[in-house]
Fold these 2 entries.
Entry 1:
Amino acid sequence: MSSLRLPTVAVLGRQNVGKSTLVNRLLGSRQAIAHETPGVTRDRVEVEAAWRGRRFRLVDTGGYANKATGIEAMAARQAEHAADGADLVLLVVDAQTGPVEEDAALARRLRRAEVPVLVVVNKVDSEREEADATAFLALGLGEPLSVSALHGRGAGDLLDRVADLLPQGPPDEEEGPEPRFAIVGRPNVGKSSLFNRLVGEERSVVFEEAGTTRDAVDAVAAWPSGTVRFVDTAGLRRPSRAEGLEYYSFLRAVRAIERAHVAVLVLDASEGFTAEDRRIAARVVDAGRALAVVANKWDLVSEKDRTYKQLREAVEIFAQSAVSRTSALTGAGVGRLPQGLLALHERWAKRVPTSEVNRVLQEAQGERAVPGGARYRYGTQVSASPPTFVLFGGASPDGSYQRFLEHRLRRAFGFEGVPIRLRFRAKRFKSGRP
């Protein structure tokens, strides 16, 4: 979000009452993963919504469980943190089950809240079920609102109430220009631990179980240079290996890469640069996003010099990206990442004067002639993010020569870690001439 703070709506409730489905309904698109399996949402998932010209932030949370243990207790704490920082809380309950002890326990906590709390009775799919909502008056939080998140019934009335109760926020405008970083990688390589250290607070649930993170979790961090946005994603697997919930997590992670400016590929240094890591790196570069590679769990590496050399050589083919060594567990190496990531973002958005492009282009062709005898007479950068160049005077050369030109441009203008796009325009002859 921008430097102006958006009003925040926290969506709380026990497992499987339809919180994520409600968030998607209020948002008007599928951002949070909604599935019939209880406990799908574990982290705080933040998305921006708008209604009647008012912008606000919706925070989907993991299911609250009374006397929870293990990862469910961690998810419950995330829900409590979300409520503490909210301007309005929606307590979502299930009309089909009626009030249960976990609803009552959460209501007791929320009655002490200093912000408004609305009881939202979900799964009221028809007028015949309206009477079921009155049972939730017993929670002591006022008149409940009936909705069907699945079918959209009552969603407009709920949004009207939300807009009326929220404090005044910034006017409706485009998303801020802050740098956006997506943290990607295979499951269980330490992405969430690294994410929490970079953001500066415990935002993602970190647990000793591969695949803990399922949604993409946005967080805005205040760095000395200004605000930056981080997105922690679920572990990427090949679509052929992703089934059920994992498939939706895969889609969220891919969308996070496309939304980001820079993708931070986290790998397990003790396992090297695996085939799956290569596929993720290729996906980032193909999407035109800058790539930073972080070799996490460096404290577990025994032959450090040899391993680092091997990693650098393996990663070099992906836009000559650099390799940073960290231990998210101990914090070693993490402090150097912010400066490096911001510099990479600047290179991704960099524009080069046309005169300099042509100087490098002519020097490159003097060093190595274009196959087939053609010559590119003029070149210019037509866009940034990623840097895209058009070369005039000849058709597209073979892949080897294209890579040669990319390398020269990258070396001359400091585009390490940044994919370069080249477009070619063959010479056009005037009518009547050969």
Entry 2:
Amino acid sequence: MSKSQLRARANKQLATISPENKKQQSANICHTLEQYNNKYEIWAVFIPFVYEPNITSFIEQLWKQNKTVLVPQIDGDWLRLAYYNADSIITQWIYGEWIIQNPVWHQWLLDVCLVPWLAFDLQGNRLGHGKWYYDKFLAVNNCYRIGVCHKETIVENIPHNNLDQWMNLIITEHQL
């Protein structure tokens, strides 16, 4: 299948997941992520779209443990990391993503990046929206990469090339 066919398939699959199932999967994902709390100090997370796993409870846990929490945000053609805390003012932006108003940019390296996508394969390849933002960001950030998605969007194979960035680990309801 081509990437555009896989995107259409993933979007259809995401639409069929019940709200209860999404909630349960999200809780399981947050529980699985907890085992990485003590390994890393500086976390890039994501503020989820409605179709992505809701990792809000995990983010709150990171704050309680005084971890540095960052959110990748589009800035021109690139993703930059904005500091994220309980007092951050969040708003929707160009593609419907949630961003921090008046961001304070993080200028240093990070330890781990949670990456949301439409689909992953078991080799660590991922399928995004085709804009290359995360690929460019991850290409210059040597961090541990954890892909996060609903189990329904794991596929056998995603076409990829040398510009596509892969994941070290994929977490759905379980660690893969």
